[in-house]
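Methods — Computational structure assignment.
A single polypeptide chain was analysed. Its primary sequence is given first, followed by the predicted tertiary structure written as C-alpha cells.
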Amino acid sequence: METERLRPTVTQREQWEVEAKVSDIYQLFSSVPHHAQTIMSELRRDKHLDFVTKGLGRLGPSYCVLDANRPWLCYWILHSIALLGDSVDSELENNSIDFLNRCQDPCGGYAGGPGQIPHLATTYGAVNSLLTLGGQRALSSINRDNMRTFMLRMKQPSGAFRMHDAGEIDVRACYTAISVASVLKILDYELVQNVGDYILSCQTYEGGIAGEPGSEAHGGYTFCGLAAMILINESDRLDLPSLINWVAFRQGVECGFQGRANKLVDGCYSFWQGGVFALIRRLHSLIDQQLRPSEVGEGNLTSGNIKTAASSTLSKQVCGLELTSSDDDETSHFGGGELSDIGYYFVKGRAELEPLFHSIALQQYILLCSQVQEGGFRDKPGKHRDYYHTCYCLCGLSVCQYSWSKLADSSPLPRSLFGPYSNLLEPIHPLYNIVLDKYEEAHDFFSRS
C-alpha cells in the first residue's frame, strides 16, 4: 500500500522528463566557453526564413489535416517572415492575396479554404495575413461592409460571438471578432454590446480567463480575454491583480511558460502568456486603482471591492489618456477618436510598469530549448518543429526583447536581449499581434477609406 501511494503519476513522470532534457541543455550551455555560448544563443535567422518561406510555396502531405486552417498557415508564415525583418517576393505576395481572396465569403468573413464556410478564427488569420503583406492590393481586398454583416450574424444575445454558423461560443471568438473589427475600423457599440459581460463571466477564481464560463483558466484565453477587454475599453472590470498573479506563476523552472496549472511548458505560450504582460505594462493606472485600499470595509481589499471601485465611473484612464463613454453613444471617444482608435492610442502610450516576468530566462528557453538549428521552432525538446510554434516563439521572443522599453517602437538596450544584439526582431502591436509598422500602415489606410 505504501509503495502504491508513492508511485508517480503520468503527469509527474512527463514533467520530470521535460525538466531533465531542459536541464541537460542548460548545463551544456553553462559549461562551454563564452564564444560557444554566443553561437548557441544566436537566432538562426537565415535558417528560419528558409524554413517558413518554403512552407508558403508548398506543404507536405502531413499538413492535410490543416486544410480548414490554411489562412492560419499563411499568417504564421507571413508574420514570422515580418518578425525576422524580411518580406516575400512579388510572386508569393500576389499568390497569397489571390488565395485569401478565394477564401473570402461573398457574405463576409474568411473561410479555412476556398469553398468552406466563413469562420472567425480563420478570418483573424486571413486579415492579419493581408495586413502583414500590406500595400493597396492586399488592404483593399478586404470587404469591410460584408465583414461587419458577418460579425453581427455571429453575435449572440449574451454578448459573446459564435465562431461560425452553429459553431462554438467562447472567448477566442470574442477576441478574433473584436480584434478584426478594431483593426479594420468597423468596431462600434452594436458589436461590443455585452461582450464585456461575457468575458468577465469567464474570469476564474484563479485569476486567469477560461474559454467559457465554468471552465479552467488558460493562457490563450487569458490573452484573448484581456486584449478584447482593452479594445472595448472595459479592462477595468477584470480583477487585474489576480490575473497578473495567475499568469506570473505559469513561468516554470524550465524558464518557459505553461498554458495551464499543472501542465508542461510549451514554447507557444511564450506569446500567449508573455503577451499578457506586454498588455499589463500599459494598464498601470488601472492596476494602481485596483490595488489602492478600498473605502469599503475599512480598507480591506477584496475582489468585490475592486470591481465596485473599477465600475464606479464611466471616465477611464488607459495609458494616461482619457477615454469617456456613454451607454447611449454609438461609439466611445478616445483622445478625440472612435472606439476603433483605442488600439492605436494604446500602443502610443508609455509602458510605465517594468516586466512582471523573467524576460531573459524566457528568451533563454526559446533560443536554447525551442529553437531548431536547421530552422523553425518547437514546443519543447523532443518535439518536432512546425509553423505554429515557429510563429509564436518568435512573437514571444519579440515581446521579451522589448519588455523593458517604455515606448513600443524604441530600440531596446543590449541588456534586454539574451544572446547577440543581432537576435533583435521587429516589435509587434501586442493587442493584434501584427508587426508594428504593418499595423500603422493599415491604420492609416483604413482611416482614409
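Note: DSSP finds 22 helices and seven strands in the chain.
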